[in-house]
Amino acid sequence: MRVILGVDGILTDFWSGVHRWLSSVGAPAPLPHEVTTSEVLELLSPIARAVFEDALSMPRFWRELPVMPEACEGVRALRARGCDVAFLVSPWPSCEAYEKTRRAWLAEHFGAPSRDVMVAGRTDLLAGDALIHDQPREVVAWARSNAKRAHTACLFDAPYNQGWPELRRVTWPRLMELGLD
Hints:
By secondary structure, the protein is an alpha/beta fold. It is built from 7 helices and 6 strands. It has helices spanning 14-24, 46-56, 59-63, 71-80, 98-110, 136-145, 172-177, and strands spanning 2-6, 84-89, 117-119, 130-133, 152-156, 168-170. It has a 6-stranded parallel sheet, with helices on both faces. Helix 5 (98-110) links the parallel strand 2 (84-89) and strand 3 (117-119). The chain is globular and about 50 Å long.
């Protein structure tokens, strides 16, 4: 079974990274539990927004993102079940070394070979048996594009993606209960 894992919000604790980065330069930053939207720039003051837009263009920001709790154990468990795990990152054009940095981060923390890392802005173009993502629109698009074959589409539960009761929600412990193998 090929399981496609979104990276930010599932493997990386993106919002803690945002908070840490902005706090380090003295810019006001929401705490991770205060985040109610996935659109990070909407939550920031104009000054913090300008600082953060600069940060997003720096490989250092992406390299220093913390790992989500339970993510390493979860990926190991999926592999132990025989799953072919693929990693999905969205393109980030303002950071020239983005793809290289993300591949290195995934290799360091999850042992991900470069060939298992996909950079794509549209999940509906990807083939797999399961998708775990934190963006509802991506889960819906992928499920629709795979409607003619057996698949498992899951929304990784987060404070910023509430309000989609029709989607199967998972956390790392609940994902392990699904029986993906």
